Amino acid sequence: MALIPATILTGFLGAGKTTLLNRILHEPHGFKIAVIENEFGQENIDNEILVQESREQIIEMNNGCICCTVRGDLIMGLTDLARRRAAGEISFDHVVIETTGLANPGPVAQTFFIDEEVASEYLVDAVVTVVDARHAMHQLDTYKEAQRQVGFADKLLLSKTDLVDEAAVQQLMARLRRINPRAPIVTSDFGKVAISEVLDLRGFNLNDKLELDPDFISAQEHAHEHKHVHDHDHDGHACGEHCDHEHHHHDHHHAQHSDNIAAFVFQSDRPFQAEKLDEYLGTIVQVYGPRMLRYKGVLWMDGADRKVIFQGVHQIMGTDIGAKWGENEARSNKMVFIGQNLPQDTFILGLKQCLV
Question: Signal sequence: where (predicted)?
Protein backbone atom coordinates (compact mmCIF):
# COMPACT_ATOMS: atom_id res chain seq x y z
CA MET A 1 0.00 0.00 0.00
CA ALA A 2 1.37 3.42 -0.96
CA LEU A 3 2.69 5.66 1.79
CA ILE A 4 0.66 8.74 2.70
CA PRO A 5 2.51 11.94 1.71
CA ALA A 6 2.80 14.55 4.46
CA THR A 7 3.48 18.27 4.09
CA ILE A 8 4.93 20.15 7.04
CA LEU A 9 3.63 23.71 6.96
CA THR A 10 5.61 26.17 9.02
CA GLY A 11 6.14 29.90 9.30
CA PHE A 12 6.55 32.54 11.95
CA LEU A 13 3.70 34.02 14.01
CA GLY A 14 1.29 35.91 11.77
CA ALA A 15 2.90 34.84 8.50
CA GLY A 16 -0.36 33.59 7.01
CA LYS A 17 -0.44 29.84 7.71
CA THR A 18 -3.96 30.03 9.10
CA THR A 19 -5.28 31.85 6.03
CA LEU A 20 -3.71 29.23 3.76
CA LEU A 21 -5.08 26.36 5.82
CA ASN A 22 -8.58 27.78 5.81
CA ARG A 23 -8.45 27.87 2.02
CA ILE A 24 -7.31 24.24 1.95
CA LEU A 25 -10.07 23.24 4.33
CA HIS A 26 -12.90 25.04 2.53
CA GLU A 27 -12.22 25.43 -1.19
CA PRO A 28 -13.48 22.82 -3.68
CA HIS A 29 -10.06 21.66 -4.87
CA GLY A 30 -10.98 17.99 -5.13
CA PHE A 31 -8.27 16.69 -2.79
CA LYS A 32 -8.93 14.69 0.37
CA ILE A 33 -6.54 16.26 2.86
CA ALA A 34 -6.16 15.74 6.58
CA VAL A 35 -4.93 18.93 8.22
CA ILE A 36 -3.23 18.43 11.58
CA GLU A 37 -2.71 21.32 13.93
CA ASN A 38 0.33 20.20 15.90
CA GLU A 39 0.22 21.52 19.48
CA PHE A 40 -2.62 23.41 21.03
CA GLY A 41 -1.77 27.10 21.06
CA GLN A 42 -2.92 30.54 20.09
CA GLU A 43 -2.88 29.86 16.35
CA ASN A 44 -5.89 27.61 15.90
CA ILE A 45 -6.92 27.03 12.31
CA ASP A 46 -10.25 28.69 12.92
CA ASN A 47 -11.74 29.30 16.33
CA GLU A 48 -15.22 28.73 14.92
CA ILE A 49 -14.24 25.37 13.47
CA LEU A 50 -12.22 23.86 16.27
CA VAL A 51 -13.75 23.11 19.63
CA GLN A 52 -11.09 24.03 22.14
CA GLU A 53 -11.03 21.01 24.36
CA SER A 54 -8.18 19.02 25.89
CA ARG A 55 -8.67 15.97 23.68
CA GLU A 56 -8.12 15.40 19.97
CA GLN A 57 -10.83 16.56 17.60
CA ILE A 58 -11.46 15.32 14.08
CA ILE A 59 -13.89 17.43 12.09
CA GLU A 60 -14.85 16.59 8.50
CA MET A 61 -15.27 19.54 6.15
CA ASN A 62 -17.81 19.82 3.34
CA ASN A 63 -15.08 19.64 0.66
CA GLY A 64 -13.84 16.24 1.81
CA CYS A 65 -10.99 17.52 3.94
CA ILE A 66 -10.49 16.61 7.57
CA CYS A 67 -9.32 18.92 10.34
CA CYS A 68 -7.57 17.28 13.28
CA THR A 69 -6.07 18.95 16.34
CA VAL A 70 -3.25 16.98 17.96
CA ARG A 71 -2.65 18.39 21.40
CA GLY A 72 -0.48 15.54 22.59
CA ASP A 73 2.08 13.34 20.88
CA LEU A 74 2.30 13.87 17.11
CA ILE A 75 3.29 10.22 16.65
CA MET A 76 0.10 9.08 18.36
CA GLY A 77 -1.96 11.50 16.28
CA LEU A 78 -0.47 10.29 12.99
CA THR A 79 -0.81 6.60 13.83
CA ASP A 80 -4.40 7.12 14.99
CA LEU A 81 -5.29 8.84 11.73
CA ALA A 82 -3.67 6.02 9.74
CA ARG A 83 -5.52 3.40 11.79
CA ARG A 84 -8.90 5.09 11.29
CA ARG A 85 -8.17 5.49 7.58
CA ALA A 86 -7.32 1.79 7.24
CA ALA A 87 -10.55 0.90 9.07
CA GLY A 88 -12.57 2.99 6.62
CA GLU A 89 -13.74 5.44 9.30
CA ILE A 90 -12.20 8.45 7.55
CA SER A 91 -10.79 9.11 4.09
CA PHE A 92 -7.80 11.21 3.08
CA ASP A 93 -4.91 11.02 0.62
CA HIS A 94 -2.53 13.63 2.01
CA VAL A 95 -1.62 15.12 5.39
CA VAL A 96 -0.73 18.75 6.08
CA ILE A 97 0.82 19.37 9.50
CA GLU A 98 0.81 22.93 10.78
CA THR A 99 3.52 23.72 13.30
CA THR A 100 3.16 26.55 15.77
CA GLY A 101 4.66 29.90 14.82
CA LEU A 102 7.63 29.52 17.17
CA ALA A 103 8.34 25.88 16.36
CA ASN A 104 11.50 24.36 14.94
CA PRO A 105 10.27 22.10 12.11
CA GLY A 106 13.25 19.76 12.58
CA PRO A 107 11.78 17.49 15.26
CA VAL A 108 8.52 17.27 13.29
CA ALA A 109 10.40 16.10 10.21
CA GLN A 110 12.44 13.64 12.28
CA THR A 111 9.22 12.03 13.53
CA PHE A 112 8.81 10.42 10.10
CA PHE A 113 12.20 8.70 10.38
CA ILE A 114 12.63 7.77 14.03
CA ASP A 115 9.26 6.08 14.59
CA GLU A 116 8.84 2.81 12.73
CA GLU A 117 5.05 2.86 12.74
CA VAL A 118 4.88 6.39 11.34
CA ALA A 119 7.57 5.56 8.75
CA SER A 120 5.58 2.52 7.64
CA GLU A 121 2.52 4.67 6.89
CA TYR A 122 3.82 8.11 5.85
CA LEU A 123 6.55 9.89 3.93
CA VAL A 124 7.52 13.56 4.09
CA ASP A 125 6.56 15.27 0.84
CA ALA A 126 8.00 18.70 1.67
CA VAL A 127 8.53 21.36 4.30
CA VAL A 128 6.68 24.50 3.17
CA THR A 129 7.42 27.76 4.99
CA VAL A 130 5.22 30.87 4.83
CA VAL A 131 7.26 34.09 5.12
CA ASP A 132 5.73 37.46 6.03
CA ALA A 133 7.23 39.99 3.59
CA ARG A 134 6.29 42.89 5.86
CA HIS A 135 7.96 41.62 9.03
CA ALA A 136 10.40 38.92 7.93
CA MET A 137 13.56 41.04 8.02
CA HIS A 138 12.99 41.92 11.68
CA GLN A 139 11.96 38.36 12.52
CA LEU A 140 15.06 36.92 10.88
CA ASP A 141 17.23 39.41 12.76
CA THR A 142 15.58 38.68 16.10
CA TYR A 143 14.41 35.07 16.23
CA LYS A 144 16.49 31.98 15.48
CA GLU A 145 13.22 30.07 14.98
CA ALA A 146 12.43 32.22 11.94
CA GLN A 147 15.82 31.40 10.45
CA ARG A 148 15.37 27.69 11.14
CA GLN A 149 11.96 27.70 9.45
CA VAL A 150 13.50 29.22 6.31
CA GLY A 151 16.52 26.93 6.43
CA PHE A 152 14.38 23.80 6.61
CA ALA A 153 12.09 24.73 3.74
CA ASP A 154 11.70 22.88 0.46
CA LYS A 155 9.51 25.75 -0.73
CA LEU A 156 9.01 29.32 0.54
CA LEU A 157 5.61 31.04 0.22
CA LEU A 158 6.04 34.82 0.42
CA SER A 159 2.95 36.52 1.89
CA LYS A 160 1.95 40.19 2.35
CA THR A 161 4.04 41.42 -0.58
CA ASP A 162 1.31 44.01 -1.21
CA LEU A 163 2.37 45.75 2.01
CA VAL A 164 5.95 46.46 0.93
CA ASP A 165 7.61 47.91 -2.16
CA GLU A 166 9.38 45.89 -4.83
CA ALA A 167 12.86 46.84 -3.58
CA ALA A 168 12.05 45.45 -0.13
CA VAL A 169 10.71 42.24 -1.68
CA GLN A 170 13.88 41.76 -3.72
CA GLN A 171 16.09 42.44 -0.69
CA LEU A 172 14.17 39.86 1.34
CA MET A 173 14.29 37.29 -1.45
CA ALA A 174 18.06 37.72 -1.74
CA ARG A 175 18.41 37.10 1.98
CA LEU A 176 16.16 34.04 1.86
CA ARG A 177 18.28 32.61 -0.96
CA ARG A 178 21.43 33.08 1.09
CA ILE A 179 19.89 31.17 3.97
CA ASN A 180 18.38 28.47 1.75
CA PRO A 181 19.38 28.38 -1.93
CA ARG A 182 17.51 25.14 -2.66
CA ALA A 183 13.97 26.35 -1.88
CA PRO A 184 11.95 27.98 -4.70
CA ILE A 185 10.10 31.15 -3.67
CA VAL A 186 6.51 31.90 -4.75
CA THR A 187 4.09 34.61 -3.61
CA SER A 188 1.04 33.66 -1.58
CA ASP A 189 -0.91 36.81 -0.75
CA PHE A 190 -4.11 36.22 1.23
CA GLY A 191 -3.49 32.48 0.99
CA LYS A 192 -4.03 32.60 -2.77
CA VAL A 193 -1.65 29.97 -4.05
CA ALA A 194 -2.30 26.93 -6.21
CA ILE A 195 -2.60 23.67 -4.30
CA SER A 196 0.11 22.35 -6.63
CA GLU A 197 2.51 24.83 -4.98
CA VAL A 198 1.88 23.20 -1.60
CA LEU A 199 1.18 19.51 -2.21
CA ASP A 200 2.99 16.75 -4.12
CA LEU A 201 6.21 18.75 -4.34
CA ARG A 202 8.44 15.72 -3.67
CA GLY A 203 10.90 18.20 -2.25
CA PHE A 204 12.01 15.99 0.62
CA ASN A 205 12.42 12.73 -1.23
CA LEU A 206 15.75 11.35 -2.35
CA ASN A 207 16.23 11.93 -6.06
CA ASP A 208 19.06 12.54 -8.50
CA LYS A 209 18.44 16.25 -8.85
CA LEU A 210 19.69 18.97 -6.56
CA GLU A 211 17.89 22.18 -7.38
CA LEU A 212 19.80 25.25 -6.25
CA ASP A 213 18.95 28.85 -6.84
CA PRO A 214 21.14 29.93 -9.80
CA ASP A 215 21.62 33.42 -8.35
CA PHE A 216 23.09 31.87 -5.22
CA ILE A 217 25.49 29.72 -7.24
CA SER A 218 26.59 32.60 -9.47
CA ALA A 219 27.14 34.85 -6.43
CA GLN A 220 29.26 32.19 -4.76
CA GLU A 221 31.25 31.56 -7.94
CA HIS A 222 31.88 35.29 -8.30
CA ALA A 223 33.15 35.47 -4.73
CA HIS A 224 35.24 32.35 -5.37
CA GLU A 225 36.85 33.85 -8.46
CA HIS A 226 37.57 37.07 -6.60
CA LYS A 227 39.24 35.16 -3.78
CA HIS A 228 41.53 33.22 -6.11
CA VAL A 229 42.25 35.92 -8.66
CA HIS A 230 45.98 35.88 -7.91
CA ASP A 231 46.25 32.12 -8.03
CA HIS A 232 44.17 31.09 -11.03
CA ASP A 233 43.22 32.64 -14.33
CA HIS A 234 39.54 31.74 -14.56
CA ASP A 235 38.65 34.08 -17.43
CA GLY A 236 35.03 33.19 -16.95
CA HIS A 237 35.57 29.45 -17.41
CA ALA A 238 35.57 26.47 -15.12
CA CYS A 239 38.92 25.10 -14.02
CA GLY A 240 40.52 22.43 -16.15
CA GLU A 241 40.94 18.80 -15.20
CA HIS A 242 44.34 19.45 -13.60
CA CYS A 243 43.14 22.29 -11.40
CA ASP A 244 44.11 21.36 -7.85
CA HIS A 245 41.48 23.29 -5.86
CA GLU A 246 37.84 22.53 -5.29
CA HIS A 247 34.94 24.83 -6.01
CA HIS A 248 34.02 25.92 -2.52
CA HIS A 249 32.52 29.32 -2.25
CA HIS A 250 31.96 32.20 0.11
CA ASP A 251 29.15 34.71 0.00
CA HIS A 252 30.25 38.26 0.80
CA HIS A 253 26.89 39.93 0.23
CA HIS A 254 25.35 39.90 3.69
CA ALA A 255 26.95 42.89 5.37
CA GLN A 256 23.62 44.25 6.56
CA HIS A 257 22.24 41.05 8.05
CA SER A 258 24.42 38.39 9.65
CA ASP A 259 22.32 35.24 9.87
CA ASN A 260 23.32 32.39 12.15
CA ILE A 261 21.70 30.02 9.67
CA ALA A 262 23.25 30.03 6.23
CA ALA A 263 24.05 27.73 3.34
CA PHE A 264 27.19 26.80 1.48
CA VAL A 265 27.86 24.60 -1.50
CA PHE A 266 30.65 22.14 -2.26
CA GLN A 267 31.31 21.17 -5.88
CA SER A 268 34.08 19.05 -7.34
CA ASP A 269 35.03 17.56 -10.68
CA ARG A 270 36.85 14.66 -8.99
CA PRO A 271 35.13 11.54 -7.60
CA PHE A 272 34.83 10.64 -3.94
CA GLN A 273 36.43 7.59 -2.38
CA ALA A 274 33.40 5.89 -0.84
CA GLU A 275 34.92 4.60 2.41
CA LYS A 276 36.59 7.91 3.23
CA LEU A 277 33.41 9.87 2.51
CA ASP A 278 31.22 7.54 4.58
CA GLU A 279 33.56 7.87 7.53
CA TYR A 280 33.81 11.65 7.22
CA LEU A 281 30.07 12.24 6.82
CA GLY A 282 29.42 10.02 9.82
CA THR A 283 31.88 12.06 11.87
CA ILE A 284 30.51 15.50 11.01
CA VAL A 285 26.92 14.37 11.56
CA GLN A 286 27.85 13.12 15.04
CA VAL A 287 29.68 16.35 15.91
CA TYR A 288 27.58 18.99 14.15
CA GLY A 289 24.26 17.17 13.61
CA PRO A 290 22.17 19.34 15.96
CA ARG A 291 23.29 22.42 13.98
CA MET A 292 22.85 20.81 10.53
CA LEU A 293 19.30 21.66 9.49
CA ARG A 294 19.22 20.21 5.99
CA TYR A 295 21.87 18.80 3.72
CA LYS A 296 21.73 17.04 0.40
CA GLY A 297 24.05 15.94 -2.37
CA VAL A 298 24.34 14.26 -5.74
CA LEU A 299 27.64 12.40 -5.58
CA TRP A 300 30.14 10.86 -8.00
CA MET A 301 31.77 7.82 -6.45
CA ASP A 302 34.98 6.40 -7.85
CA GLY A 303 34.30 3.39 -10.04
CA ALA A 304 30.50 3.72 -9.89
CA ASP A 305 28.32 4.12 -12.97
CA ARG A 306 25.37 5.45 -10.98
CA LYS A 307 24.86 8.62 -9.00
CA VAL A 308 24.70 8.35 -5.23
CA ILE A 309 22.13 10.55 -3.51
CA PHE A 310 22.35 11.55 0.11
CA GLN A 311 20.43 13.88 2.37
CA GLY A 312 19.82 14.42 6.03
CA VAL A 313 18.02 16.24 8.81
CA HIS A 314 20.17 16.89 11.86
CA GLN A 315 21.75 13.53 12.84
CA ILE A 316 19.54 11.42 10.58
CA MET A 317 21.16 10.78 7.20
CA GLY A 318 20.05 8.60 4.30
CA THR A 319 21.61 7.51 1.01
CA ASP A 320 20.23 5.97 -2.14
CA ILE A 321 21.43 4.85 -5.55
CA GLY A 322 20.33 7.25 -8.27
CA ALA A 323 20.16 7.10 -12.05
CA LYS A 324 23.06 6.08 -14.25
CA TRP A 325 25.40 8.82 -15.36
CA GLY A 326 24.60 9.77 -18.94
CA GLU A 327 27.05 8.79 -21.64
CA ASN A 328 27.88 12.42 -22.36
CA GLU A 329 27.02 13.77 -18.90
CA ALA A 330 29.78 15.60 -17.06
CA ARG A 331 30.34 13.77 -13.78
CA SER A 332 30.74 15.88 -10.68
CA ASN A 333 29.80 16.27 -7.03
CA LYS A 334 27.33 18.87 -5.82
CA MET A 335 26.45 19.21 -2.14
CA VAL A 336 24.59 21.85 -0.14
CA PHE A 337 24.66 22.27 3.63
CA ILE A 338 22.23 24.51 5.53
CA GLY A 339 22.90 24.98 9.21
CA GLN A 340 23.55 27.14 12.22
CA ASN A 341 27.09 28.51 12.48
CA LEU A 342 28.59 25.54 10.64
CA PRO A 343 32.40 25.66 10.18
CA GLN A 344 32.38 25.91 6.40
CA ASP A 345 36.16 25.73 5.97
CA THR A 346 36.34 22.59 8.12
CA PHE A 347 33.62 20.90 6.07
CA ILE A 348 35.26 21.88 2.77
CA LEU A 349 38.71 20.70 3.83
CA GLY A 350 37.37 17.37 5.06
CA LEU A 351 35.39 16.78 1.87
CA LYS A 352 38.44 17.59 -0.26
CA GLN A 353 40.40 14.94 1.61
CA CYS A 354 37.77 12.34 0.67
CA LEU A 355 38.32 12.86 -3.05
CA VAL A 356 40.30 10.44 -5.18
Answer: none
